[in-house]
Amino acid sequence: MTRGTRDVHKRVRTARGRTASSNRWLARQLNDPYVRQAKAEGYRSRAAYKLIELDEKFGILKGARRVVDLGVAPGGWSQVVRKLRPGAAVVGIDLLPTEPLEGVTLLQMDFMADEAPAALRDALGGPADLVLSDMAANTVGHKQTDHLRTMGLVETATWFAIENLEPGGAFVAKVLAGGTDAALLSLLKTHFRTVKHAKPPASRKGSSEWYVIAQGFKGTPGPQEG
């Protein structure tokens, strides 16, 4: 290989006070091609490429006009939406602060708060045709607890999508290894024409994350006539 194409493996110098796990994380960041590519292309996080790869496979951004980004910080997914669908209205929400993004309305609040769905609807100005969720609960180190907490977020995001998508819309959410549990999978299949799971190449091999992709929202059923 030429010097210009050779992959240079960077070594991390040890520093006083830095833990071994911190050193491993830093080494992984320095040698991660997605991190380098994100920096070169101006994306705020390597996670941007997960959405790009999911879109390439499933066409989830095709025709998107109103998009909700749940767990928006630091903004990588919204950047992708704005780049690929520059005319789309995008609203993002996160408990963490997010630096302003051109063309994106940002709400700093807890998505699980009672007032969050109404705030998102008001900011979007109409029904969404795409709801994205890259949310994950803060881990406590107990596998079962972490799974339950994250799936609780996914379930809430699913109901938000069902109540706010227009017919034909799509919902994409991060889940953990094993995919969506049976009850939630059944709910998604009831409301969407297709439901699939995928692990984009940009997801680290050692990561337990997968994504559920639900497309072709059937619409919210109207009241029964009696």
UniProtKB/TrEMBL annotation:
Chain residue ranges for the region called Disordered: 1-20
Source organism, top-level taxon: Bacteria
UniProt subcellular location: Cytoplasm
GO MF terms, alphabetically ordered: rRNA (uridine-2'-O-)-methyltransferase activity
Binding site for S-adenosyl-L-methionine: G75, W77, D94, D110, D134
Enzyme Commission identifier(s): 2.1.1.166
Residues in coiled coil: none
InterPro entries found in the cross-reference section: RNA_methyltr_RlmE (IPR050082), RNA_MeTrfase_FtsJ_dom (IPR002877), rRNA-MeTfrase_E (IPR015507), SAM-dependent_MTases_sf (IPR029063)
Protein's UniProt keywords contain S-adenosyl-L-methionine: yes
UniProtKB keywords: Cytoplasm, Methyltransferase, rRNA processing, S-adenosyl-L-methionine, Transferase
Homology family: Belongs to the class I-like SAM-binding methyltransferase superfamily. RNA methyltransferase RlmE family.
Classification via PANTHER family: RIBOSOMAL RNA METHYLTRANSFERASE (PTHR10920), RRNA METHYLTRANSFERASE 2, MITOCHONDRIAL (PTHR10920:SF18)
Record's function text: Specifically methylates the uridine in position 2552 of 23S rRNA at the 2'-O position of the ribose in the fully assembled 50S ribosomal subunit.
HAMAP family reported for this sequence: RNA_methyltr_E
Name of the molecule in the record: Ribosomal RNA large subunit methyltransferase E
Organism lineage: Bacteria, Pseudomonadati, Pseudomonadota, Alphaproteobacteria, Sphingomonadales
